[in-house]
Amino acid sequence: MKLSLSSVYRPYRFPTLINSSALGRPFCSPALSSPSTILKPQVPLFLRPPINSTKLCDLKKWHDWAKGVATSIGSAFVHSDNGPDSSLLCREIKWLMEDAVEDHSVFSHVGLEGDECVKMRVDIEELYCLWKQRVQERRPFQYIVGCEHWRDLVLSVQEGVLIPRPETELIVDFVCDVVSKNEDLKRGVWADLGTGSGALAIGIGRVLESEGRVIATDLSHVAVSVAAYNVKRYCLQDKIELREGSWFEPLRDMEGKLAGLVSNPPYIPSKDISGLQAEVGRHEPRVALDGGIDGMDALLHLCDGAALMLKPGGFFAFETNGEQQCRALVDYMENNRSGSFCNFEILADFAGIQRFVIGFHQ
Length: 362
Known about the structure:
Largest sheet: 7 strands, mixed
Number of domains: 2
Distance between the termini: 28 Å
Strand order of the largest sheet: 7-6-5-8-9-11-10
C-alpha cells in the first residue's frame, strides 16, 4: 500500500466501457442478491442500468465545465500533497464519461452541439455533483466510479473500504509461484487477513483453481459486505469464505491448519497519517492505514498469529511500508519467534522498494 500518486491512481483503464462481454464474462450477472445481514454495497457506475438520458449539448456543457475545473487546478494539488495534476484529472473526466455513457459512439460528437439524447447510467446533475466532490473534496476517483482495476479484476470499492494498490498485486504472484511447486499448499486452506475489497482473496482463489479454498477476514462490516459482493461477481462464493472479525479471532478453528496466510495490513505510522495525500488521508478508512506509533502494530500481531495458525511448511506473505519495516519484521521473527519460521525473503515492489516479507512455517 504505497500511498503516493502512482499507487492511488492506476496508470491505465480499459479504453471502452467495462461490461461482462468486454471482459469475456469472467464474473456472474451484476444483479446480485445479498443476505439480509449484509449491507448492500454500492453498485459500480459501469454496472448501473442506463435509465437516465440527457441531451448531447448538455453533456458537452458538463464536459467543458469539468475540463475547465480540472485545468484550473494546474499543479496545485501536486505541490500540496503529491496529489493529481490537471493532466490526470482530464484523463479521469474521460474515464468517468466512459463509465457513465452507454453508447461510446457519441464521444465523437462531444465537440458538436445537438439535441440528440444520450442514454446515461447517472443523471447529468449527479455527474456535476460527482466532479465537484472529486475536485473540491478530493474524493478518490475510485469512490466516484465505485470500482478499481486490479490485476485482471474490476473490484467494487466505496467509502469505508481501502482501495487496492498495484503493489499488492505481487502477493498473488508470490502465492502463484509457491503453489505451482507444492501441490499440498495448492490444496490447502489460505487466509487473507484484513481483506478489504477482497482483492487478495479473489486473486488467490483463482490461483488455487478447484483445489484449495480461502478464508477472508475483516473487522469492518462494510468491507466484508463489499468483499462478498466482489466474490459473488467472480462466482467464487463456493471457494472463498468471508468472516467478520479482528485478525485471527474468526480463525480460531484453523489453528495449525492454514496452508498459507497473506495480509496487506495497516502500516503507516500514526504521526504520518495527517501528511498523506488528501484522497487517502481524508477519505480512506483510518483503521486500514494507521499501524500505530511505528506502523508495526498489526505486522507484529500477524507474525505472532502466523506462528500458531500456519501448519508445518505453510507460507506467509506480508506487505510493509518499506525496507525499514521489512528488516524489523525479520529481526522480530528471528529473535522472538525463533524456531517458528524459516527461509525469509525481503522482496521489492514495482518501484524497487523493499516492501514484502515472505517465508515459511517450520
